[in-house]
Amino acid sequence: MSEPPILVVRHGRAGDRSSWTGDDRDRPLDERGRRQAGWLVEELADHPVDRILSSPTARCVQTMEPLSAARSVPLETTEALAEGHAGEVHELLRTLRGTAAVLCSHGDVIESVVPGRRAKKGSVWVLDGADLSPVRYLRPP
After folding, report:
1. DSSP string for 90-108
2. Confidence of residue 24 (pLDDT cuts 50, 70, 90)
3. What is the average pLDDT score of the chain?
4. Taking the domains of the chain in order of start, what are their residue ranges?
5. pTM, two decimal places
6. What is the enclosing helix (H) or strand (E) of 64?
7. Residue partners of 88: CB distance under 8 A and separation at least 6
8. C-alpha to C-alpha distance for 60 and 9, rounded to whole angstroms
9. In CATH, which of 3.50.50.60, 3.40.190.10, 3.40.50.1240, 3.40.50.1820 is domain 6-13+25-138?
């Protein structure tokens, strides 16, 4: 890869949506999701990280907070990564070419980036930084 890869993370596990009584945007990571967030710090240790971007939902922000703290890279939130915004992510990805970026989003958004491929909660798709094609899939713990 001539350009740095862009890493696309599906947020860690956040329990069952149907059993959460509050606003779904506030649904936090569960215990397994917090472990997955910690795993990302170790799993991505060899990857350069210049920017960390996240959907503004609690579960995405919480997934990226340990990596942000470990790398001393500010966590940026953007609606372009929010659930239901699959059409906006492609323009965001184009603007990030040449940047070692980590993005955290939701299943529908990630499936628009890597069509026909599923992403388990807490997993990572490594995209080629030049053509944004999927290069590698990192399974979550």
Report:
1. HHHHHHTTTS-EEEEE-HH
2. confident
3. 93
4. 6-13+25-138
5. 0.94
6. helix 58-71
7. 79, 80
8. 9
9. 3.40.50.1240
- Rounded Cα distance between 66 and 43, Å, is 12
The single-letter code of the amino acid at 9 is V
Looking at the DSSP bridge assignments, the partners of residue 103 are 8, 53
The Cα–Cα gap between 8 and 15 comes to 21
Q: Which residues contact 101 (CB under 8 A, 6 or more apart)?
A: 4, 6, 7, 49, 50, 51, 52, 53
Grade residue 20 by pLDDT with cuts at 50, 70 and 90. low
Q: Which two tokens stand for residue 58?
A: 């609690």
Q: pLDDT tens digit string along 100-120? A: 999 999 999 999 999 988 899
Cβ(97)–Cβ(3) below 8 Å: yes
pLDDT surpassing 80 at residue 123 = yes
